[in-house]
Specification:
Layout lengths: L1 E9 L2 E25 L2 E27 L4 E27 L5 E28 L4 E14 L7 E13 L2
Antiparallel strand pairs: 1-2, 2-3, 3-4, 4-5, 5-6, 6-7
Length: about 170
């Protein structure tokens, strides 16, 4: 979901304020390990999950270059306030065999939840086409999220957005 408002200050420059829900991403894996120790079959299971979701508020300037009376190219540059929620979890169950040949039941569980907010530069390119003096269509690509996280296992998260829609000019 995304929405925004803007104001065209000059024929070649506008300011916009937007909200964008970047959605969520989830990665899960489950592994089953079977091994033979002294004629006995042992099974171990490992489940791992990582997920995040982000929402941003964007304040951007839009430079506009009219190509024809109806077609305009756009360059976007701004800042985004990014709020991201991370979580991960791991569960391992099975039999552990040590280097001396001993074994025992292994159960290990760990989880991590974190919320992080920060600022990120945004930039992008787009084009708009005026169907009428008050209605225009647009298409854009924008890098809206580029944060080096403090969360384990995530590192840097980058999010690009491709959008298209209609504008109404008052």
């Amino acid at each position: 979901m995304s929405f925004g408002v803007g104001y065209q200050l000059t024929p070649n420059f506008a300011m916009e304020l937007a909200y964008r829900d970047l959605g969520s991403a989830r990665y899960e894996t489950s592994n089953t390990v079977t091994f033979n120790h002294d004629g006995e079959i042992y099974v171990g299971v490992s489940d791992f999950r990582n997920e995040y979701e982000s929402k941003v508020f964007i304040l951007r300037g839009v430079g506009m270059l009219p190509v024809t009376e109806k077609l305009t190219l756009e360059a976007l540059l701004g800042v985004a306030h990014v709020r991201t929620k991370y979580s991960s979890g791991e569960v391992n169950e099975g039999v552990e065999v040590d280097s001396l040949g001993g074994y025992g039941l292994l159960t290990y569980s760990d989880s991590y939840d974190e919320k992080e907010t920060g600022w990120s530069a945004t930039y992008g390119l787009g084009a708009s086409y005026a169907f009428t003096p008050t209605i225009a269509g647009y298409a854009r690509w924008e890098r809206v999220h580029d944060i080096n996280t403090e969360s384990p296992g995530w590192g840097s998260i980058k999010a690009d957005s491709v959008s298209a829609g209609l504008r109404y000019h008052f």
